[in-house]
Design brief:
Layout: E1 3-15, E2 18-29, E3 33-37, H1 44-51, E4 59-64, E5 67-68, H2 74-80, E6 81-84, H3 97-107, H4 112-125, H5 141-153, E7 159-163, H6 171-188, E8 191-196, H7 202-205, E9 208-213, E10 215-220, H8 222-227, H9 229-234, H10 241-251, H11 263-276, H12 289-300
Parallel strand pairs: 3-8, 3-9, 6-7, 7-8
Antiparallel strand pairs: 1-2, 1-4, 4-5, 9-10
Helix pairs in contact: 3-4, 3-5, 4-5, 10-12
Bound molecules: adenosine-5'-diphosphate and magnesium ion.
Length: 303
């Protein structure tokens, strides 16, 4: 498949004592969903700001669909790649939602009716139809997050880059946003790159994960990355709760080769187990069970 983003040996230094990125290599294929996970200060935001040419590497290079971000005009890059900032107040700056969503398409030089069409489509996708005349600053945080994604979607990018999309959202807004992002990939084939430290969202949002801590520490499927508890601990990352629960169940004799990473995976797993074991799940407590559980809890202790 075509390479959507290629990052080669990218380094970035804010000042002598802040080396934010060190020789980062990354490849994202068209249609893929990638998560970049890492603790606070790992360089996630810094990396994303290189993807659409806001920052330029001290060393190395970034290509989007084979074009070097350093050599192409920013107006060209933002047609392909849309970046949703963590803070919606950085994205929304016009008096109305309509103006915010129309801003990009107007700058592309589109005609008035095309601009209007793009704005309506983006609002519909985000469930914000009817918000055209609302003032961004009077929206709830969840609505602002959706509006900032809509402002990016009105540019119809092939690649969507999101910085901590689930941070500070209440559970319903969080679930809605995750569904919307998933849908954009499934229905429109949009390539998704998400930077996050919300590990519980990763299995649903990504097919492949990069662990970033200035350098790329590891790369692989969610299953591979989250099975490596030492890796997660060393990089100050949580393990998804569902994963921990099924490891506990294993101590009680639950038979499970591949631990589920999301509630949906868990439902599938439990259903399969009940069906193959004659309508029951068999658990036990042996002499060693409590020791095993204690060891497991020690393993997950952070410090
Ligand atoms: N504008 C800036 N000026 C100086 N240092 C910065 C700036 N932005 C980020 N940093 C530093 O760069 C490092 C990486 O930050 P950042 O990319 O925001 O990490 P993350 O998004 O993973 O939390 C941190 O040490 C941070 O303090
Ligand atoms: Mg950040």
């Amino acid at each position: 498949m075509r390479e959507a983003i290629t990052i080669k040996n990218l380094s970035y230094t804010y000042s002598e004592d802040t080396r934010a990125l060190e020789s980062v290599n990354m490849t994202v294929h068209e249609g893929e969903r990638i998560a970049i996970v890492g603790p606070n200060g790992a360089g996630k935001t810094t990396l994303l700001l290189h993807l659409n040419g806001i920052l330029h590497g001290t060393d190395g290079q970034v290509e989007v669909f084979g074009k070097s971000v350093d050599k192409v005009k920013r107006e060209e890059i933002i047609k392909d790649i849309g970046l949703v900032f963590q803070d919606p107040d950085d994205q929304l700056f016009m008096p109305t939602i309509f103006d915010d969503l129309a801003f990009g398409p107007i700058n592309l030089g589109l005609k008035e009716d095309e601009v209007r069409e793009r704005v309506e489509k983006a609002l519909l996708t985000l469930g914000l139809s009817g918000y055209e005349n609302r003032c961004p600053h009077h929206l709830s945080y969840g609505e602002k997050k959706k509006a900032s994604l809509a402002a990016v979607m009105s540019m119809e990018p092939r690649i969507l880059v999101l910085d901590e999309p689930t941070a500070n959202l209440d559970p319903r807004s969080r679930a809605e946003l995750i569904e919307i992002i998933k849908g954009l990939n499934e229905r429109e084939g949009i390539t998704i790159v998400t930077a996050t430290h919300d590990v519980n969202a990763v299995p649903t949002l990504a097919d492949r994960v990069y662990v970033l801590n200035k350098r790329i520490i590891a790369e692989g499927t969610s299953q591979k990355i989250f099975s490596d508890v030492e890796l997660l601990k060393e990089n100050n990352l949580e393990v998804p709760e569902v994963f921990k629960l099924f490891e506990v169940l294993q101590c009680f004799g639950y038979n499970c080769e591949e631990l589920p990473l999301s509630v949906d995976d868990a439902i599938e797993h439990l259903t399969r187990t009940v069906e193959t074991e004659g309508g029951h799940i068999h658990l036990h407590i042996h002499k060693h069970t409590h020791d095993q559980v204690r060891k497991l809890k020690d393993k997950y202790e952070h410090h």
